[in-house]
Amino acid sequence: MISIVIPSYNSEQTIGKCIDSLKNQSYENEYEIILVDSSDDNTPNIVRQEYPDTKLTHLEEKTDPGTARNLGIEKAKGEIIAFIDSDCIASYDWLKNIETAYDQGYNVVGGAVDIANEESDLIGWAGYIAEFREFLPGAPRHEAVHIPTCNISYKKDIFEKFGFFDGKYYPQEDLVFNYNLRQKGEKIIFSPDIQVRHLHRSNLKEFFVHQRKIGEITAKVMKVVNLEGSFIARNSLLGLLLVPLLAVVKFIRTGIVFLRYQPQVITKRPLVLVLFAMGLVYWGIGFAIGIYKKS
Question: What is the pTM of this model?
Answer without folding.
Answer: 0.93
